[in-house]
Amino acid sequence: MKAQTKHTCSGCDLPITDRYLLEALGRYWHEGCLKCNCCECKLGDIGSTLYSKSNLILCKRDYLRLFGISGVCASCNKPIAAFEFVMRAAKNTYHIECFSCQVCRQRFRVGEKFYFYNNKVLCWDHYRTEKECERPTDESTMEWKAVALNGGP
Ligand SMILES: [Zn+2]
Ligand SMILES: [Zn+2]
Ligand SMILES: [Zn+2]
Ligand SMILES: [Zn+2]
């Protein structure tokens, strides 16, 4: 006659003889063996959420850190995964490979300066060009405004 079926812990491969066992991801675990593969925090506690991806068991924080989306690239408009390296300029985030002058696509080398103007990342040459093009031309604006189209009755 067989005693009650023993479950084997997926974490340590030992039989579970505790009063409580955890069932997660279709497997059984000792209370202390269900841990986040990243930070080793216990996931057996009540209220903790467990995430699983590519054979990893993760707590919510690590899951978001590794697989969450950290934002959208201001250059190509594609999402940036949280584990990717990013460049930041002002409030914008860029893929490393997208971080280049938005006019000539020249990449910046380490230590090289970039300029942020009109929500665009620019090299020094194009920063100068853009700034000159957009210099306000007050006089001509005034003249255009003076032309009335539907003036008379
Ligand atoms: Zn175990
Ligand atoms: Zn964790
Ligand atoms: Zn991008
Ligand atoms: Zn440029």
Automatic annotation (TrEMBL):
GO terms for molecular function: DNA-binding transcription factor binding; metal ion binding; transcription coactivator activity. Residues 7-69, 71-133 form the LIM zinc-binding domain. SMART domains: LIM. The keyword Zinc applies. Keywords: LIM domain, Metal-binding, Repeat, Zinc. GO terms for biological process: positive regulation of transcription by RNA polymerase II. It holds the Pfam family LIM. PROSITE patterns: LIM_DOMAIN_1, LIM_DOMAIN_2. One of its GO terms (cellular component) is nucleus. Coiled coil: none annotated. This is LIM domain only protein 3. It comes from Acropora cervicornis.
